[in-house]
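Re: that chain you flagged

S.,

Sorry for the slow reply, it's been a week of failed gels. I finally had a moment to sit down with the sequence you sent. For the record, here it is as I used it:
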Amino acid sequence: MRTYRAAAHPLRRAGLVAMVAVLGALAAHSAAADGTPVPSFGGTPIIPGNLLVATSTYQDDPNIVAGVTQLPPGCGSSTDPCGTAVASGDYPYVFSNDQVDGFFGVTSPITLLELTPWGQQIGSIRVPSEAGGVVTSFSSKSELALNLSTDGREVSFVGYAAAPDSTDVSNGSTPGDVDPTDGDGSTHYRVVATLGQDGKLTYTETNAYSGDNGRAAIVNDAAGVIYAAGNAGNGSNPEPQGVVTGAGAQLIQPSNVPEAAQAPGQPVPVGSFNVSQLGDPLDKSAKDDNFRGMTVSANVLYYTKGSGGNGVDTVYFVDTSGSACPDGSGLPAVGASLPTTSTLSFDANEGTSTKKPDPGLVPQNMCILKGFPTALASGATDSSDYPFGIWFANPDTLYVADEGAGDNTYSTTSDTYTAAAASTTAGLQKWVYNATAGEWQLAYTLQKGLNLGQPYTVPDYPTGDNSATGLPWAPATAGLRNITGQVNPGGTVTIWAETSTVSGGGDQGADPNKLVAITDRLEATSLPTEEGFETVRPAINATVYRGVSFTPGTSPTPGHQPLPPFPFPTDGVLPTPTGRS
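Prediction finished late last night. Pasting the structure tokens below so you have them in one place:
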């Protein structure tokens, strides 16, 4: 383990010595030089103030054989014809099966890495993936967001009650809300996993997100409920009631019994938005609630939408006052409270058509945060916003990760994914509240150091072109997905983020990506030219980074992190700890 020379500071030296002693005691669990995860530390309590990163490493699936295996599982009906696998179960070639199976994905185990803020691995937790545990769908890029609970005691994420190497789980139904028109015949509960500071995991199964995936969860400790984000529906219109009520923003009751003893009831929606609130015609109401990022700030529950052809790709909040945004866009009411019960009900037809009903939820109780985009996603282009993770540095400063459009247009002349390289919206957007205008305004977008659209090399990953796509295997950063941050002494903030990618790999969600970080001047309202992203964890073959948060036991208040802030030590001097305030 590398040893740093502590900067002299008489008031903080004792705390630093204690921290170094802890790091020394855990040195046996440090990462290999190439960043490869090391074995679990076996239940050792987690250190507050460190980073927690959700990862998954693909394990080759011997059950998928090119020219033999029929996809998707359970296919063969007139409405669900079979396709023959074009690639066997080896990474990354297996994801060429997207060509014959539009639902294609393979479940894989989850590993949580505990890192210092500058990227040194302290340990890891291998999340149980056998019966009674939870897995992720490897190529589903929107999964495994990590979020501290409202009092910081726990961190939560969402996966599936399924075995590793299961095919097409993410588009299958949940057992309590089977959609007979869903071409993916698998049925599996979605699972909210919650990690305490003692390193122990608890699991809560849910019937929400039938036909798609749960993406994020936050525990409201005081109210004893879980808020969740995700999408639902993979069948024909009109969608069944359980699919509609199980989409988007959910309110889940945590369970304290093993998964085998759980009997999840029907989903309970906590929020819903409809484009008709903006005066636009109805599209597909349940798909307007296709959420992925989420956070809680000042007793307000926020969500983002950044994918799909319905609704609006933007930032939302749940309006518990009922009066914050009569025209679909507004600001949270002063003194707003977090929701603890649902006020929503199923409406079999929100429109007037009798030929094609449009089921949804009423009343709509979500609003677009005033100043953020209100244009319909149906007209989105490469220059549109695609928001993902969000983090409030203070009540007037909001950082929004934008993953980019995912356009993998490539130029052999410049060896660049040109659409990604040309994006002005992808990266880390800084939004500032303008009290005079009464709305949020985009200050600037941080991109320096991300090298958007420029292919990078991953050790042991294929080189050259993918014969299935005719494009390079090499991925390039296209933007950012999930984020977390802290407020540092001296008027700066540090934000950690996972990168999104473009490539010719067949499924860009399976690309090896990176964990990066940047320090920004909090008061800046024009782009500081000197600021740039640094790589905290490099891309690793067959491994993806999905979520990032601070470890359980860390205060959720932005300035209350006990370990040193970014940047990395470049001169052998460890930054002095900030301490708890």
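What I noticed first: Residues 1-42, 562-581 have pLDDT under 50 and may be disordered.

Talk soon,
D.
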